[in-house]
Amino acid sequence: AQSVSQHNHHVILSEAASLELGCNYSYGGTVNLFWYVQYPGQHLQLLLKYFSGDPLVKGIKGFEAEFIKSKFSFNLRKPSVQWSDTAEYFCAVTGYGGSQGNLIFGKGTKLSVKP
Amino acid sequence: EPEVTQTPSHQVTQMGQEVILRCVPISNHLYFYWYRQILGQKVEFLVSFYNNEISEKSEIFDDQFSVERPDGSNFTLKIRSTKLEDSAMYFCASNSGAASTDTQYFGPGTRLTVL
Questions:
Q1: How confident is the model at residue B98 (pLDDT cuts 50, 70, 90)?
Q2: Residues of chain B neighbouring A49 (CB-CB closer than 8 A)
Q3: Which of A107-111, B90-94, B101-105 has the lowest mean pLDDT?
Q4: Which among B42, B55, B91 is the nearest to A99, CB-wise?
């Protein structure tokens, strides 16, 4: 069965620190990978996604993620976090191709950035 | 920017009662989804809907659940006889395309509390 694991439940950083949030997936075929973010009191919104091409994907607000197929990983990174990055981050996957777009989510990682 | 909206934001009900959760997807979107998140757990796919019928459903989506698009704008999730374990945050999402790479846009969620 498809699954997504996020290693960290809660990460606390100071402003300007670098961020890396881990995500590993289990899926029998080619996948599409997503990072969603939920700021306090707001909707889930897309940060970035990968489905083909350059495995280093850049998203909004200075975030990037790298797809490493051999490690089944899609870690999210940001070189210097800001207080406004405080949010919950969700890694998700869909199967490649076809019309089945249902997202399989990880449990989420809560990021708290101290000013 | 167009948004997915959901009402109510919080619904409290007694066990065994029927509830209807409402969603207004983005107006030109054709594919609709319901997800839920039990407190402390993953966001889980429930059902996808296209062209007035269910495209795919998870094992969570049993006979107690139904979805409907009663008019051109609303997309509803009905739980016929609520159980305590139905208490969760329910998210509606929509996208314009069928591809598994298409970005889903999420609503703010309805928190359902079953007493």
A1: low
A2: 101, 103
A3: B101-105
A4: B55
